[in-house]
Q: What sequence folds into this?
């Protein structure tokens, strides 16, 4: 494992902590907060979809810590928008 791998691992750990903490205290999860029309949850789902070549819904749901119903509704909205 090289320095770049260590950095990537550290960044992933910080991002995981930040997600857990913002979810815990309930901030940033409304449209407009990020100067976008998307909620934090929508932005996180879009980000994860963009960075993964392929994924299963169950793996995405587990990684993001969202319910199956929430992820399903969000993905349906994305599909309705043609994304």
A:
């Amino acid at each position: 494992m090289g320095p770049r791998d260590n950095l990537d691992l550290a960044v992933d750990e910080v991002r995981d902590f930040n997600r857990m903490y913002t979810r815990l205290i309930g901030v940033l999860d409304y449209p407009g907060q990020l100067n976008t029309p998307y909620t934090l949850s929508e932005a996180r789902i879009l980000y994860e979809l963009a960075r993964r070549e392929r994924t299963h819904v169950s793996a995405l749901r587990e990684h993001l810590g969202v319910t199956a119903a929430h992820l399903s509704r969000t993905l349906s909205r994305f599909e309705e928008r043609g994304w």
In short: The chain has one domain: 3-80. The chain has four helices and no strands.
